[in-house]
Amino acid sequence: MAESRAAWDRVGQDFSALGRQVKQHYEQQDRAAQDPPPAERRKVDEALRQLTESLEQAFSALGDAIRDPQVGEQSRKAAGSLSDALTATFAEASERLKRR
Hints:
By secondary structure, the protein is an all-alpha fold. It has one domain. It has three helices and no strands. It has helices at 2-32, 38-67, 69-99. The longest helix has 31 residues, at 2-32.
């Protein structure tokens, strides 16, 4: 459990770092180019802020879900169902090929 939490914490850190880098590149381009009108700049800044916030919420929720025992059980069930479906599909395909 501690390993998965650490892994998801790292994912969050990496995406935060990525967000900072994207912001830095955006700001560098802004300095190199003519400054957009303040209203346009505010719209872009707000969109970037909302994107960053949404990503943080999504990864936080994903991390919480992964640590939830019910989600783990459902994941095992889903993986088992997928495995069963793939097995049946390949068995049917194999049988069809044998008949040819």
